[in-house]
Design a protein that fits this description.
Strand content: under 5%
Distance between the termini: 69 Å
Radius of gyration: 26 Å
Largest sheet: none
Shape: rod-shaped
Structural class: mainly alpha
């Protein structure tokens, strides 16, 4: 038997077994609308994200106006719907 053949048998015999991580082919993360990582996964164990409600509320205080005139001012920009301005601590 050649040296290459012997090496192939040894490598094949002691090859590491695949782990669960090796079997994962794709990871998909769907982010809907304007939700951030913290909104979706902030409280997930081991996620290294901020917990919800530590910087800004997850929901608006009330329902924004839905009238046609509200959409026209200022130029249709939805910039005054209870925006939370972030400040770093």
């Amino acid at each position: 038997m050649s040296l290459a053949g012997s090496a192939a048998m040894i490598v094949g015999r002691y090859a590491p077994r695949p782990t669960a991580r090796d079997r994962i082919k794709n990871v998909l993360i769907f982010v809907q609308e304007n939700h951030t990582f913290d909104n979706l996964f902030g409280k997930f164990p081991g996620a290294n994200g901020r917990a919800a409600n530590t910087r800004c509320a997850d929901r608006l205080a009330g329902d924004p106006p839905h009238r046609h005139a509200s959409a026209l001012q200022p130029g249709g920009a939805a910039d005054d719907l209870g925006r939370c301005y972030y400040t770093e601590a």
